[in-house]
C-alpha cells in the first residue's frame, strides 16, 4: 500500500510530530510511505529523525502548489492520504474530488467559535472526505455537528513519542524541592500566567518549588499581570524558561510533576510523554485528553477550576503520593505506535 502523510508545512510541532512518528513506523514495517509538504523547515529536524522520503511540492503560490500537488497525486497514485491541520485538510479533501485516493483528515483541536465562512468550509471538508480521525472524545463530539454521515468519524489517540520506557531510566532528584515542568507554545489559552501565579503562591508559602517551562516566545500578552512576578521568580531561581528543546526527555525525567492549565486541547502530546515517563500530572479540568490520561486520579489529579490555592494543594498532595510506576507503563502501552498505526490503517 502506498501511503502519503500530507502537511501544509513540515515543521516542529505536535501534529507534525504525530505524523512523523506514524510515517517512520509505517516505513519501518514495509509500507511505501512519503511525507508530502508545501514548505519544509528542515532546520527543525536532525538527519536521524525523518526516515522517509520528503516530497516538497514546488510552486510560487498556494494555488500553483495545490495544482502541482494534484498532478503529483495523479502520477504517483497513492491509495490513501492522511492530512492534519486546517489548510492540509482542506486541500486533501478538495483534491479527493478529482483523484482516486482515500482522503483521511485529522482536526487537531476542539471546535471553537468560527466565522460563517469557516463554518461553510467545515461542512464542505467533513462531508466530502472519506474519514475524519479525532484524537480524543472531546474532539470527536465538538466536530460531529458538521457531519452528515457520522460513521465517517472515528476516535484514535496520538501515539507515544517516547521510545525507551521510563523503567529503564535512573532519576536523580532533590527530595527537598518540588520540580514542576510544562511544555507549552506561547498562547494565552495555555494559561502560563495561571501556573506562574500558583508557583508564586507556593514560594510565598515557603515551599521549595521550581517550575520549568519548555517552549518559545512568551510575550507580555501571554504572561499578563504575572510578568513582573515571573521576572522575580526567575531571579530567585524558582522559574526557568528553557525555550525550544527538540528532545525534552531529559528535562521531563528530572521533574516530579507535570502541570497544565490549558483552557482546551485536542490531544496534549506532552501529557502522554509524562505518562510514559512515569510522571504524575496536575491539570485544570478542560476539553481534551487530560481526563483520558489521568484516569480516576490514578496518574495525578484534576482541579475543577482556576483556583490557585486548590491547584497548589493538589501539587503538594500528588508529591506526597507514592504512585505505582508500573501502572503508568502499563497504561502507556495503550498508545503504542504499532497499535495506533493499525487503527489508522483500519480507518481506510
Folded structure, characterized:
With about 350 residues, this protein is an alpha/beta fold. The protein folds into 2 domains: about 150 residues, 3-Layer(aba) Sandwich (Rossmann fold); about 170 residues, Glycogen Phosphorylase B (Rossmann fold). The protein is built from 14 helices and 13 strands. It has a 7-stranded parallel sheet, with helices on both faces. Strand 12, helix 11 and strand 13 form a beta-alpha-beta unit. The longest helix has 15 residues. The mean pLDDT is about 90.
Number of helices: 14
**Number of domain units:** 2
Write the H/E string, N to C: EHEEHEHEHEHEEHEHHEHEHEHEHHH
Question: How is the biggest beta sheet arranged?
Answer: 7 strands, parallel
Q: Architecture of the largest domain, CATH level 2?
A: 3-Layer(aba) Sandwich
Text of the CATH class of the largest domain: Alpha Beta
Could you list the spans in which at least 5 consecutive residues all have pLDDT below 50? Answer: none
- Strands ordered across the widest β-sheet: 3-2-1-4-5-6-7
- Which assembly state applies to the chains in this document? single chain
CATH topology (fold) name of the largest domain: Rossmann fold
Rg of Cα set: 21 Å
Gross morphology: elongated
Mean pLDDT: 89
**CATH homologous superfamily (4th level) name of the largest domain:** Glycogen Phosphorylase B
* Number of extended strands: 13
Fraction of residues in H or I helices: 25-40%
How much β-strand is present in the residues? 15-25%
Report the end-to-end length measured between terminal Cα atoms.
Answer: 11 Å
Query: Structural class of the secondary elements?
Result: alpha/beta
Amino acid at each position: 500500500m502506498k501511503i502519503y502523510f500530507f502537511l501544509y508545512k513540515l515543521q516542529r510541532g505536535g501534529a507534525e510530530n504525530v505524523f512523523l512518528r506514524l510515517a517512520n513506523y509505517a516505513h519501518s514495517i514495509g509500507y511505501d510511505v512519503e511525507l508530502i509538504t508545501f514548505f519544509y523547515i528542515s532546520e527543525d529536524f536532525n538527519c536521524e529523525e525523518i526516515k522517509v522520503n520528503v516530497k516538497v511540492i514546488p510552486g510560487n503560490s498556494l494555488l500553483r502548489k495545490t495544482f502541482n500537488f494534484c498532478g503529483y497525486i495523479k502520477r504517483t497514485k497513492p491509495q490513501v492520504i492522511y492530512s492534519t491541520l486546517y489548510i492540509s485538510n482542506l486541500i486533501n479533501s478538495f483534491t479527493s474530488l478529482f483523484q482516486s485516493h482515500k482522503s483521511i483528515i485529522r482536526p487537531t483541536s476542539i471546535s471553537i467559535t468560527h466565522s460563517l465562512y469557516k463554518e461553510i468550509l467545515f461542512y464542505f471538508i467533513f462531508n466530502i472526505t472519506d474519514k475524519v480521525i479525532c484524537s480524543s472524545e472531546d474532539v470527536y463530539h465538538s466536530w460531529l455537528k458538521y457531519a452528515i454521515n457520522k460513521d465517517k468519524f472515528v476516535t484514535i489517540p496520538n501515539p507515544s513519542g517516547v521510545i525507551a520506557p521510563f523503567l529503564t531510566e535512573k532519576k536523580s532528584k532533590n527530595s527537598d524541592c518540588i520540580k514542576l515542568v510544562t511544555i507549552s507554545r506561547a498562547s494565552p489559552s495555555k494559561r502560563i500566567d495561571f501556573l506562574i501565579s500558583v508557583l508564586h503562591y507556593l514560594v510565598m508559602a515557603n515551599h521549595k518549588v521550581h517550575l520549568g517551562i519548555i517552549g518559545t516566545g512568551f510575550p507580555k500578552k501571554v504572561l499578563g499581570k504575572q510578568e513582573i512576578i515571573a521576572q522575580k521568580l526567575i531571579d530567585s531561581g524558582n522559574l526557568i524558561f528553557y525555550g525550544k528543546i527538540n528532545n525534552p526527555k531529559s528535562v521531563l525525567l528530572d521533574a516530579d510533576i507535570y502541570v497544565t492549565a490549558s483552557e482546551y486541547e485536542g490531544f496534549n502530546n506532552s501529557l502522554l510523554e509524562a505518562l510514559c515517563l512515569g510522571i504524575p500530572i496536575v491539570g485544570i479540568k478542560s476539553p481534551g485528553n487530560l481526563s483520558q490520561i489521568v484516569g480516576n486520579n490514578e496518574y495525578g489529579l484534576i482541579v475543577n477550576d482556576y483556583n490557585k490555592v486548590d491547584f497548589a494543594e493538589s501539587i503538594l498532595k500528588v508529591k506526597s503520593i507514592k504512585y505505582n510506576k508500573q501502572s503508568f507503563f502499563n497504561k502507556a502501552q495503550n498508545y503504542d505506535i504499532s497499535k495506533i498505526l493499525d487503527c489508522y490503517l483500519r480507518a481506510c
